[in-house]
Every structure is written in C-alpha cells, then in structure tokens.
Design goal:
46% of the residues lie in helices and 20% in strands. By secondary structure, it is an alpha+beta fold. It has two domains: 4-205, Metalloenzyme, LuxS/M16 peptidase-like (Cytochrome Bc1 Complex, Chain A, domain 1, 2-Layer Sandwich), CATH 3.30.830; 225-419, 2-Layer Sandwich (Cytochrome Bc1 Complex, Chain A, domain 1), CATH 3.30.830.10. It has a six-stranded mixed sheet, with helices on both faces. The termini are far apart.
C-alpha cells in the first residue's frame, strides 16, 4: 500500500502512510525548492538557510530543538539538494505531535539571528574548503559545472565563500519565504502514524499560514565541456557525463536500467570489463541523475593516472555495445536490481516518507509499488537501444578529471572514442 494524499486550503500537501506493527515513525517536511532556486549572487543560500533554522525557531533555542527531540527518543536531520530541502524527524510511536511542531517552527518560524549567522558562515566556509580538499567530491562539482555551465544546476550546492558572505539575516528571511512557500510544501509521515492526528496537526501548524508562491526555476540544458585539473595525487578521479532525461520523461526507467547495465553493480559491464578483466580501475560505476525536466548519465572511475585514458576508451566501447543491444538476461537482472533498490527502501519509514514527498512534488500524486514495478517491467530491449541512441546522437559530453598530468587526456580520449 502507498500513502494517502491530502491538500490543505493554502496549497500545502499532506501524505499519511501508516505501516502496521511499527513502534516508530518518521515525518518529513519537504520544500520543493533547493539550490536550483538561487540567483547567481545567492549561491549556497539554500544550504546556509537549512543550517540556520536549527539555530532557533519559534520559542525554541538551538539547544531546545535538539534536546526536545532526543529526550523523546527521536532523531532530527535535514538535507539540501538542487530541487528540494527536507527536514526530517524519526521518533518513537506517540512522538508525532512534538516532531510536527518542531518541524513547523523550523520551516515557518526560524529566528535567523545575525550573530549566529556570522558564526555559521564560518562553519559553511570550512565545509566548502573540506569538499575542495576531497578529490572524489571536487571532481563531481567540476563535472556538474561543465554539464550545466552558467546555470543553477552547475553551481555547487554548498556555494562559494563570496556569495555566502553576502547573506544578511534580513535577506535570508526573505529568501526563506520563497524557498519554503506553501505551493511547494509537503508534509509526509510514515510508520506508526494516525491519519486523523496528522491531518489535525498539519491543519493547525501549516494550514493557518497564507497561500504563498515561490520562484520558478528556468529550464536547464546540458552543455558540453570538460574540466581537467592537475592535483598531486597517487590516483586519478574521472567523471564522464552524457545528456539524459528528466524524472517526468517516458524514458526515465530506461535511463535507470541503462545505467544499471552499464555500471550499476558487480555484474555490470564496466565492473566486469574495466575492473575484473582488465584491472584498469579500483572503482568504477555508472548512474542516472534526473531533475524535473533534464538529466544525465554519469560514469565515475578511480584509476591509476596512466590508466585514465584507456579506461575512458573502455567506457566508450561499452556504451556503444550496450546501445547496440542489451541481452534479455542482462535486462532481467537489471530490472530485479532496480526494483530491489526501490522497494527495499520502503522498509524504512523515513525513506517511505521521502519517496512519497518526491512523488507528490514531481507528479502531484502517489504511485503504488505495483505501478512502479509495472513501469520497470515494461521497459524492453528496444527501449534500451532507443535511449542509448538518443544519448549518443546528441554527440555531447561533459565531465572532469582530477589528478596527475598523465590522466588529463581522459575526456578528449572519451569523446574521440565515442564520436571520432
């Protein structure tokens, strides 16, 4: 069973998904805006705001927020992505009221103290520096910037010190009003929850707020570009990207299965060829990333520097081979793996609440596991070929390589191997 969707008069949507025989619950308040809704001079503000609301909200101090939840046996967390900001509480059965009240304060009534803001800016700047020092984080930021150059999707979620520094308490409050506007707000609970209690709490805490609307993101487009960066490292980190499809595209599950077959697990083509047979890479995988209306297919390889270009050739060869034809047994295996990854998450009440919120934000409806399984099973070998052809016909790549100089030709090698 999936949950039930309800709508408050101000546009806030509420999902209740009871799970029998659980002694715990999870509730997420998810705003359907994130780093993608920032202006160029606001880069990193969505993540900064997520941090700041925990410094005080409503009548609660920062200490009150965490101690209140933890004293009741709960855990509280938050996350910012390009298209969502999520605030989450996991709690014991009976903890719904406190959890919902705390989350409502965080989202709707943060204090955003100016002195606290200046201290938190220093924390964020340290986080930015830490990410820049981690090569397997840095290479993904560089690749993302290449794939969506000059667009919000191409800017790092953490932002830059210069744009973080410009945020004032007043400006961040005004930014919050758009980010967490009621038109893109979902309250989603799963586990040991009572539907009537949840709806009453949501109506009292969220429904009393006026209907508001926030910024609308401009359409994004995949751009060609490759960023090589020299680092004194023992290994090379390479990310190769090709244009993909958005979450609403009819080829969405074909993309997921294509990436699974290419490099999704130990039985995938890239793992077996590049790692097991040729020994070129100590780590290699492929993935599909979908935003609302666009997406990408990505390959990450961790290799010795001298193996980076040859690994890129292998990736190109396997991409072409997969496009020419996926074997039925391979496709069946990938379908089983994809369904397992989707459905095993439903055993967690938090994952279930987050999945439901994501479906509502993208489609304004909920899907049953049976509907999702049917969509996955409907993908044919011809669909995989069509998706691969669509990707390769674009004749566009993006990405990044980070490591010694001998690795820096990986992008050029990849493009030449694919397109001549």
């Amino acid at each position: 069973m999936s949950g039930r969707l309800h709508r408050l008069s101000n546009g806030v949507r509420v999902v209740c998904d009871p799970m029998a025989d659980l002694e715990t619950l999870s509730i997420s308040v998810v705003a359907g805006r994130g780093a993608r809704a920032e202006g160029p001079d606001q880069s990193g503000w969505a993540h900064l705001l997520e941090h700041m609301v925990f410094k005080g909200a409503g009548e609660r101090t920062a200490r009150d927020i965490v101690e209140g939840i933890e004293a009741a046996g709960g855990q509280i967390n938050a996350a910012t992505s390009y298209e969502r900001t999520s605030f989450q509480v996991r709690a014991l059965k009976g903890g719904l009221k406190l959890a919902t009240e705390v989350l409502a304060d965080l989202v709707l009534r943060p204090t955003i103290d100016a002195q606290e803001l200046e201290r938190e800016k220093q924390v964020i700047e340290q986080e930015i520096a830490e990410a820049a020092d981690a090569p397997d984080d840095r290479v993904f930021d560089l690749a993302q910037a290449s794939a969506f150059a000059g667009q919000p999707l191409g800017r790092p979620i953490l932002g830059q010190p210069a744009t973080i520094e410009t945020a004032s308490a007043e400006a961040l409050q005004a930014f919050r009003a758009g980010q967490y506007a009621s038109d893109r707000l979902v309250v989603s609970a799963a586990g040991a929850v009572d539907e009537d209690e949840l709806l009453a709490l949501a109506e009292r805490l969220f429904g009393a707020e006026p209907h508001t609307t926030g910024p609308v993101s401009d359409p994004a487009g995949f751009t060609a570009g490759f960023h090589p960066e020299v680092r004194r490292l023992e290994q090379a980190h390479t990310v190769l990207l090709l244009p993909g499809v958005g979450a609403r595209d009819e080829a969405y599950f074909a993309q997921r299965l294509f990436a699974e077959a290419l490099g999704g697990g130990m039985s995938s083509r890239l793992f077996q060829e590049a790692r097991e047979r040729l020994g070129l890479a100590y780590a290699i995988d492929a993935y599909g990333e979908s935003y609302a209306e666009t997406g990408l297919v990505g390959i990450y390889a961790g290799t010795a520097a001298d193996n980076a270009a040859r690994t890129a050739e292998v990736v190109a060869r396997e991409l072409v081979a997969l496009t020419l034809g996926a074997e039925q047994g391979e496709l069946d295996r990938c379908k089983a793996q994809l369904k397992a990854s989707l459905f095993m998450g439903r055993e967690s009440s938090l994952s279930r609440a987050e999945q439901s919120a994501g479906q509502v934000l993208l489609f304004d409806k909920l899907f049953t596991p049976a509907e999702i399984a049917e969509a996955v099973d409907a993908v044919s070998a011809a669909d995989i070929r069509a998706f691969g052809t669509r990707v390769l016909d674009a004749m566009t790549i993006a990405g990044a390589v980070l490591g010694p100089k001998s690795a820096l030709k990986a992008g050029e090698t990849f493009q030449r191997a694919l397109f001549g």
